[in-house]
Amino acid sequence: MDNKPVDVMVVNFNTAGLLQPMFDALRRADSERLASYLVVDNASADDSVARMATVCPEALLLSNKQNVGFGRANNQLLAHLQGRYALLLNTDAFVASDSLEKTLAYMDAHPECGVLGVRLEGRDGDLQPSCRYFPTPLNLFVARTGLARFFPGLQMVDEMNWDHGSVRECDWLPGCFYLVRREVLDQVGLFDPRYFLYYEEVDHCKRVKQAGWKVMFYPHTTVVHIGGESSRSVAELEAASRQISTYQIESELLYLRKHHGLAGLALHMALVCLGDLVLALKAALKGRGWGAIKACWRHAGTTWSILSKTRYATQPTR
């Protein structure tokens, strides 16, 4: 029997309630004909593993004893791929009935396309950033401080002011629906395991483009992305929503050191300090109180602490 064209790769972390609707949406998209299912459970504390037995018994299921992070969990599935394509799909992302057929047809017709993403919408139909620019020390600073009006023409990571109705090449795509060609995985691999959470797909798209492939946004199908469900469960289980921001800060530092070098990292740290000063001044002028001002200093302190723990963004802390 011929292999199905796409392997759907799912990493689950405490989202048992989303598994049934996510797989139901896949089946409405003719996944039983087009797709095989590969699932990693990242040491969920809910009944995700037990529920998988009834929700999708045909899936290959790996169950981790501890949460190894999003990127490493996806990497565990590479050895099990059989199709021409791999689709990384979040448990909080629900494909439309035409999503698989249309995106696979596009990839078949455009062999230069290495990674494909689609139009993302929220539960209420609001457009989400679906096609993004690479982060830099400057655009991260501008986004954080709200000073975009002083930098006209600067490409912001989540720039939304463009036509979302046309196919277009872009820098990177969100990992909630991330269709990648098998040859790309054979050539450049999947995720850098140093990223525990955040920046995995940013770094991957950077390497994919450096290898000569195109990263494309395809608007002719829509995926509903609730967003933040796994991150929310981390906060609930660990009672530490602050921890989520430390994951992001660490990945940001690792990415900038890797792709912008030591000089880019130094510029980023200088702009982090300047940004916290700007935000503290804004908080003071608007009378937000000492709590808001102290939060700025805590952010700067946390960033410097993580820089030290990662040995100047050369290695992960976990």
Written description of the protein model:
- The chain has helices at residues 16-28, 31-34, 48-55, 70-76, 99-109, 137-145, 182-188, 200-210, 229-238, 241-285, 290-309; strands spanning 6-12, 35-41, 60-63, 85-89, 93-95, 113-121, 168-169, 177-181, 214-225.
- The protein has 318 residues and is of the alpha/beta class.
- Strands 1, 2, 3, 4, 5, 6, 7, 8 and 9 form a nine-stranded mixed sheet that branches.
- Mean pLDDT is 93; it is low at 229-241.
Structure, briefly:
The chain has 318 residues and is of the alpha/beta class.
Oligomer: single chain
Number of strands: 9
- The domain tally reads 2
Please indicate the percent range of residues in DSSP E strands (runs of 2 or more). 15-25%
CATH topology of the largest domain: Spore Coat Polysaccharide Biosynthesis Protein SpsA, Chain A
| Largest β-sheet summary | 9 strands, mixed
Mean pLDDT: 93
CATH architecture of the largest domain: Alpha-Beta Complex
Q: Class of the largest domain, according to the CATH hierarchy?
A: Alpha Beta
- The CATH superfamily of the largest domain is Spore Coat Polysaccharide Biosynthesis Protein SpsA, Chain A
Distance between the termini: 42 Å
Radius of gyration, whole Å: 20 Å
Helix/sheet category: alpha/beta
The portion of residues assigned to helices is 40-55%
By DSSP (H or I, 4+ residues per run), the number of helices equals 11
The sequence of SSEs as H and E is EHHEHEHEEHEHEEHHEHHH
Q: List low-pLDDT spans.
A: 229-241
